[in-house]
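ARCHIVE RECORD
Type: protein–small molecule complex
Small molecule: pyridoxal-5'-phosphate
Source of inputs: curated submission
Record status: active
Notes field left blank by submitter.
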Amino acid sequence: MSSKLIDLASLTANKRAFQKQYQQYQSQALNLDMTRGKPCPEQLDLANPLLNILSDTDYLDASGVDCRNYGGLSGISEAKTLFSQYLEVSVDEVFIGGNTSLGLMHDIIARAMSHGCTESSTPWASLDKVKFLCPAPGYDRHFAICEHFNIEMITVNLLENGDPDIETIEALVANDHNIKGLWFVPKYGNPSGLSVSDAVVDRLASMECAAADFKIMWDNAYAVHHLTSEQVTIKNLLQSCKESANPNRVFTIASTSKVSFAGAGVAAIGCSADNISWLEQHCSVQTIGSDKLNQLRHVKFFKNLDGIKMHMTKHAAILGPKFDKVQTVLNDKLAGLNIATWSNPKGGYFVNLDVQNGCAKKVVAMAREAGVIMTAAGATFPYQNDPKDCNIRIAPSLPALDDIELAMNILCVCIALVTIDKLSSS
Ligand code: PLP
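STRUCTURE (tokenized, with ligand):
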């Protein structure tokens, strides 16, 4: 964004007023946490019947398996049915994991590093280098997994329409056999709130990759997390991969962390039958199976995909006003100044805010000093390095409405002050 667009005079004319406001906020010793996309207590309350939905005679699954006992490595049959609907795959393409999709993703990478994949049993860790493509801004914990395993991250631009820069991706994967995978949140992305186009789904499925064992980690964390009645749908990547004769290319991952209970839900993977065998082979060494009683609770509570969708309309009713409040304050305080742009997501958990280049870290630091804790600036990029230092992630789900209003007002004052300083020194 060109600084010439900015009405610097009108902004700086208010510098004193902004400073005064900021000092007032500072003196209030506030503690407003907008760091992570956590559900709020009202959302969690919606699933409280799950806590005692099983009676003391109610522990058999539909096929008579005793869910109190060992066994059932890949999940109980009715949970697989539920997740086959959720992940849009067939029942034999579902692997039910424990309570966390992040854990499932971590373990897929860990197994590839130690034992290789379906196409090759050469452990990735035995190679000179392993690289992953990371569309950014993206989910910080994907990047943390790469850092943990010493996987080199290549930043790829996330475009304004929600697609990763597919031209660059195609060119990179075609020529570099060390590029073993790609992270992506395809729907209502973290933090963009944007969704992938059908055309890019097909290109990801069919592109030529130098690495035969190239994997797409399709983290569909926000599959049913609509905020408006305009419900986005995305194309099924596993289906496209099959049609392109690359059935083993994708792992689709999801969980009910933001449907039922965060960290106490059910996580699952949708992938080809060969990848399911690969998962079962490795998981059978790690565990005798995950918590079948929790799977049973979830199936009894939600019943089917329609049950989940209905439940999520209640989440949207709680979250919608919070996201609206973020928009109201941003529009009220920043619209027309040309000092920031932001998303207005139709789903997911985040609002993506871009301030002037070189300002994000200062804004986040200033907000913290006034008691508003945001996700660290840079966290949405590989190696916490936002090359333009402009991206800020807003997570409005947890705080109460009044706190969001206050936090957003403080954030806007910080943006104004940091921008004034930057422009008057340039
Ligand atoms: N994937 C994305 C994109 C997320 O935003 C989050 C949580 O914020 C997760 C995964 C974590 O999910 P889980 O609780 O299932 O590990």
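CURATOR ANNOTATION: Residues 361 and 377 are 5 Å apart (CA to CA).
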